[in-house]
Every structure is written in C-alpha cells, then in structure tokens.
Write a structure and sequence with these properties.
By secondary structure, this protein is an alpha/beta fold. The chain contains 13 helices and 14 strands.
C-alpha cells in the first residue's frame, strides 16, 4: 500500500487497512513517499529509502510493516492513493488498484479527470480495480464508467469514540478555520451573539478536548471525501451542520436531515444562524434527530473489517484481480 508521508485523513485510512489486514493474518507492507522519504518502482520491486522510523507518530498505534525492498509478483496487488493516479496508470507486471480517498483532490492533481472523455479513458480500463472511501466517490466512478468498484471506507479513531454526549458543555461552536475559512469568517462576523471555538494548530488531544466541550460543530469545507472531522465531532457529542458540498450531499456518507445542511446563501440570508440558534437552545432534541448519524459512525469499524475480509481474504484461493 503506497502512502503519502503526511498526517491527514487518507493516510490514517491506509494505516487502518494495514492494521486490519495484519490483524486478520494477511500480508501487507506500507511504502511511504514524500519529501522526507524516497520511493521508486521497478517492474518487480518497490524500493524505499527511509531515515530512522518513518511511520508518523500519529499512526504508531496501528500495525504497519515497512521494508527497504518490496519484491512483487504477478499475484501482488499494489494499492495507489488517487493522488498518484499517474503512477497507477503505468503498465506493470503486477496487479494495481486505486483507492479513491478524495475525489476533489484527485481532480486537482489530475485536472483531466474533470472532463468526461478523459475520465472515461482512465476509469473504463480493465486492468485497474477501484476502491472508494465514500458514496460520493462511488457515484463519481460509476458515472465515469469504472468497471470494477468496491467499497473500502475507514473508521473513527477510538480517541473520539468515548466523547460522552452528557458531558457538561458550553454553548459554543467548534469549527476548523482551514476548512472553508472565508465562509466561516463571514458567518461569525455577522453574528456576534455566537461563541466560536476555532480549532487550529492543536495536537490530537487538544482537538478531542475542544470537541468534548462544545455543543455544536459546523463544517464549512467542501467535503472531497467522507471527512473524519464531522464524524469525530458527532461522536464527541456535538450537533453537526455541514456545508452542502461533495460528500455532504450524499446521505449514505452523512445521514443527516436537510435541516443540518447549508449553502453560502443560507449564511447570507440568515437561515443558518436561525437553525444554529435553535440547535443550541434545543440541543437534546437536535441530538435525537442525529441519532442515526452517530449510530452509523459507531459501526464503521465493524463494516470496515467486513470489507477487508471480503475483498482480501474470501475466497483465499483466488486473487483479488484476475490475471
């Protein structure tokens, strides 16, 4: 499994897959690439250059094997994140899959994906398998003509799974300025009656504590995949509002009533402020309305393990892709 050497949602999903496969007795190696590590791929070998222990500290609770030299055979499956699509398209004597962890970011890296004719030339190929992290990605792949698609999602870290809905909280609103920062600023500048709690430049523990202390979380981002942060906030006991973009438009990814989705127009006309004020004043009722969302998130780990078992272990006598 190729993995960018950064700390974001996609690499965490890759480490979760590694941990689950190893826990089930399978064989998987994580190969990092990035500014601090080196990676090259020959026809039969992946070469990795590391200094020290390359696994980021944030992911060292997950089991991950690394190696300087990873030999490959015709039965080997190399999984590429969508961000290195050009690598995955190169003909190789081993099996290849693309894990679509972020549709929008893939288009930024490969702008040709925004055009149907170019997208189809890539997705209709028979020599590629596609995994999708979100229903948003599934929709994009199917509409683009992808022939072989399988769900492979992720799950929320245990650190956020015991947030405690009943913990004492202030009537504050947590949000990430780096996600739709201009829209967030416009909203809070219009409404001085609200108590914002920006989350930035914080270690994981501080993020967790902030989410456990706020009553509501607003995500102003564009949701290029099934983002982790709203799900972490939900399990931490927040009422969730999402900017209606990307994966937030897909009920399978975020099963929320439309009342909790908003657009830029809703900020301008005051609709979002009215709904947020109501949710702060009626938090228990709002939480009840989002019970399905939290239940869905709480079962993600079991669903992820089922997916890993199904795609990589059953039946064990057959490769995941035909030769």
């Amino acid at each position: 499994m190729l993995c960018p050497h950064v700390v974001t949602g996609g690499p965490e999903a890759i480490h979760q897959a590694s941990d689950t496969i190893l826990g089930l007795g399978g064989e998987v190696v994580v190969a990092y690439y990035g500014s601090q590590v080196g990676l090259s791929i020959d026809d039969g070998v992946i070469h990795c250059v590391y200094n020290g222990r390359p696994t980021p500290p944030a992911y060292r609770d997950y089991r991950a094997l690394i190696a300087a030299r990873i030999p490959l055979t015709e039965q080997s499956l190399v999984i590429y994140p969508e961000s290195v699509l050009d690598w995955a398209l190169q003909p190789r004597p081993f099996q290849r899959a693309i894990w679509w962890l972020s549709v929008d970011n893939a288009i930024v890296k490969a702008p040709q994906l925004a055009y149907d004719n170019h997208r189809r030339k890539i997705l209709e190929r028979d020599d590629l398998l596609h995994f999708y992290q979100s229903d948003y990605a599934r929709d994009y792949l199917v509409k683009g003509g992808a022939r072989r698609c399988l769900p492979l999602a992720d799950y929320i870290n245990r650190d956020f799974a015991s947030g405690g809905i009943d913990l004492p909280r202030e009537k504050s609103i947590s949000y990430f300025p780096r996600k739709g920062g201009a829209m967030a600023s416009a909203f809070f500048e219009r409404h001085g009656d609200l108590l914002p709690r920006p989350i930035e430049n914080m270690p994981r523990e501080a993020v967790r504590d902030t989410l456990r202390g706020s009553s509501l979380y607003i995500d102003f981002g564009h949701h290029p995949g099934k983002d982790r942060i709203p799900r972490e906030a939900a399990l931490s006991g927040n009422v969730i509002f999402l900017h209606e973009r990307g994966a937030a438009n897909f009920y399978v990814d975020h099963p929320l009533d439309p009342f909790y989705l908003f657009t830029g127009l809703d900020i301008v006309n005051g609709s979002l402020h009215k709904r947020v004020t109501w949710a702060l004043q009626n938090r228990e009722h709002a939480l009840d309305q989002q019970a399905l969302y939290r239940a869905r998130i709480a079962h993600e780990r079991d669903e992820f393990e089922w997916q890993v078992k199904s795609w990589f272990f059953e039946p064990v006598s057959q490769p995941i892709m035909s030769g």
